């Protein structure tokens, strides 16, 4: 009894209690503007609420409604397409490009890196505005098509049901490609040169070298790139909102656009909150899966 | 907000005491600032003897550089394109690939006048500066505490902070807007500043914690032997050392705060005079009456320029910071 109390006292003496004072200002801000809102979203998602009058408790109904709502299912499908454009295309392109230049000593790498990073630095609204012009009926893309005699293909790329989704997706590929390439080039610098020599001596061609040397060596960078691009692809509010706002029709809707519209336009706040929580869980799950898969490969 | 590397570029070490609190940190990819690793000609770890194999053939070298040039052009093209459209004479029907024959700044003047951009740029500057200052102010002591002190619940608290790094903040905007209205802060600067400080807190604290943890313990102990209090150790010993880390963090926070869109859209709904630059641009381009591509493009260039200027000055810090996982989406 006394022994354990003595141990407790010794433990308490080793702690530096004033540390909490150092944490306090940040903790206040973090609780008030991140944790409390997050918990409140979860709470709101259990109500049918128009944002003004008293809400009615509906329990998990908003979530079951999510699962059965055809427009949300459609939006999720679009998110999958965006996963392809935002995550898979840039990561694959980055890996292949890195493989093509991995044995080269690059002159002016710093300059290239700075240029390739520009899409990451620009505001998403600026990105949206510039791509809207590229896809404009009078824009450069159609100008190029007309210049080479493919007038029949020219169209309003973002206004056409068939092309709007891949057109928005390509913007994402553009934003993310530079990030992936810069990440992978940085990682490739750390691959020991002996590995390439050994692979070559073993008679490995470029494809086998890619599979057996480059991809395994860049596993960490690939994981980071996937986590970053996947979260962007699943959230993806800014670019969609500022290019098509989900249109034409429903052809580019994503869950976050519904979240915004439900919460601040049509005032079905409970539904919107449920979308927010579901989106959070989905993002966390997918990112968790990516890290887990990469860990298993490693071990 | 995402931190995927766990350890940031400025600091690679972390005490084992925390590894239990941060699930999955063992397998977090570690990315270091790449520029430090850039091989230099004649550097000792890269003897010239091996370069023939290491550098590949001349053809490979040409191909690699050509690809990089091409990729860089693609990365720059959209911005260059709107810059060209903006420089056309006003009212000119800029189409696809046309290049202005002479430089006109009239589109910029029109955009500036019509889009409230002088207010918007001032707002953005003010908000971004306030977010950076406040975030640094709360993150430095918090990072110091997590890195250097032992206190109850340190692990769980750190884990709680981790959720802030991976949280898609769409999930917080709905209650935030009601909370701000209730507190009478909706449509004020505080509505733009405080939530962003909260969102940046996790990133900043991890950043500073990793930096402080990498500073040799003996340095702090020496300061304490000299009779310095813990606060003095932070101020007189650690802070002077952390100027580079603080600059990188400040640059990143500035970038994220400047570019923030959704929070501004939700939290200053009814006061056009408080719109930040991206928000003003979004409203400006959404307005059918101003659908002249020249003016729209000029507005976009106006919004992008301040960030690009900061980027040109501090690009290495941006890149190393973002590559080390300090990405807030």
Automatic annotation (TrEMBL), chain A:
Its main location: membrane. Belongs to the binding-protein-dependent transport system permease family. It is found in: Cell membrane. GO terms for cellular component: plasma membrane. This is Sugar ABC transporter permease. The keyword Membrane applies. It comes from Streptomyces cacaoi. Keywords: Cell membrane, Membrane, Transmembrane, Transmembrane helix, Transport. GO terms for biological process: transmembrane transport. The chain crosses the membrane at residues 20-44, 76-102, 114-134, 164-186, 272-294. Residues 76-290 form the ABC transmembrane type-1 domain. Pfam families: BPD_transp_1. It is a multi-pass membrane protein.
From TrEMBL, chain B:
GO terms for cellular component: plasma membrane. Residues 23-51 have a biased composition (Basic residues). Its main location: membrane. This is Sugar ABC transporter permease. The chain crosses the membrane at residues 66-87, 125-146, 158-177, 189-208, 237-258, 294-314. It is found in: Cell membrane. CDD domains: TM_PBP2. It is a multi-pass membrane protein. Residues 1-18 have a biased composition (Low complexity). Keywords: Cell membrane, Membrane, Transmembrane, Transmembrane helix, Transport. InterPro entries: MetI-like, MetI-like_sf. Residues 1-56 are annotated as: Disordered. Residues 121-314 form the ABC transmembrane type-1 domain. It comes from the Bacteria. Pfam families: BPD_transp_1 (PF00528). Belongs to the binding-protein-dependent transport system permease family.
